[in-house]
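RECORD CONTENTS
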Amino acid sequence: MHSDSKHHAFPAIRSRGEAGAQEHTWQQIGKGQGASEGGSAAGKSGPLSGQSKLLLAVNGLFAAANALSGTFVNVYLWKASRDLTLIGWFTLVHHLTMAVTFWLAGKWVKEHNKMNCLRFGVAISALFYLLVLWFGARAVDYFVLLGVVQGMSAGLFWLAFNVVYFEVTDPDSRDRFNGWAGLLGSGAGMIAPWISGFLIVRMQASTGYRLIFTISLVVFVIGVVVSFFLKKRKTAGEYEWLLTWRCLRQKETAWRTVGLALMAQGFREGVFGFMIGLLVYVHTGSEMSLGNFALITSAVALISFMVAGRLLKPRYRRAAMLVGAVMLVLIILPFFWKVNFATLLLFGIGAALFYPLYGIPMTSTVFDLIGGDKESAKRREEYIVMRELALNAGRLLGTALFITVLSFTKAPMAINWLMLVIGSSPIAAWYWMRKIHAV
């Protein structure tokens, strides 16, 4: 990750024997700042440090606030516009801004105060909901501004979060941390949207939306307060603006392959992240149905993440990711029979069951690669920026394809084929990651 050398060798695919002796040392690069306090024996899922738990708490509050209102922002905009293409443009602006924010904020996180970057990301999320409240019914007219603000908040938060996550975990605790993060996210996703749907339906719709956006704003403020209990973390080195370009140009580096896998992962996320919730609302016309959908699917995801986080070991990652990727594609097929609440719920349950098998190995392996040797660990900020740029490139491509197809046709069968094409990208992600899992 970060290093004073401008011409270090990038980590290539190596045998476990070559990397193993040094791997644990470089993963502990932040030791003394809270990194991996209380290590574990190799091959075992290690305990989480106090700083890891605090980081999970901040992540949980961030997830809860977004779960309360995140899906309903898209519904709110769709109800005002009745245009799926506009939601696509809103999402495209969000991802583009997030990518640019990651790249620019990398210097702040590397050379200055990464904790302030994380807090600022949470604060801008609060600002986003303040703007939605202020604009009210006119919010749809400001979708570009809202997309920019939301993209900035996500970029700042997730850049700082991922750097601190790398520093407070090691290979032995990383799968457990990811399992707990998924568990908290699923718990928030289970309860918060159901509460939001209940409030919107029971109250006058506009009043209900204002209430849930206000609650989200308050939760984000609490997240900022909790973040002050995280220790200020040391900085070292200078930010290398063009490391991503230099790294991807080199043939003998695992990052070229990993970059393609991350783009494939983002290709699905860019569209499915907003489309499934919207389809539930479009086919039911009820925010309560969307809340029930979130309740059921997140309850399944909660259990799935808990089990996967406990049982997944590095040696199982390749097989687990293949099973997860294949199942994420197969669960799309019922849409060709009929798209209604039942088939959408079937999809949601299937995704909740199998996404952890795909997502946890993907995330853990990439972060293990970042910590694979001294030079890459020292440039962790640049490599995390590279990871996010690849993910957002995929999200942008997927969303752009979505907008392009819907500009020509909104026929249900065309949308089904579009969802299948986009939803098949996990297979490509596994294909490019299969050798990385073996190192």
About this structure: The two ends are 19 Å apart (CA to CA). The first helix runs from residue 16 to 27. The chain is about 80% helix and 0% strand. The chain has a mean pLDDT of 82.
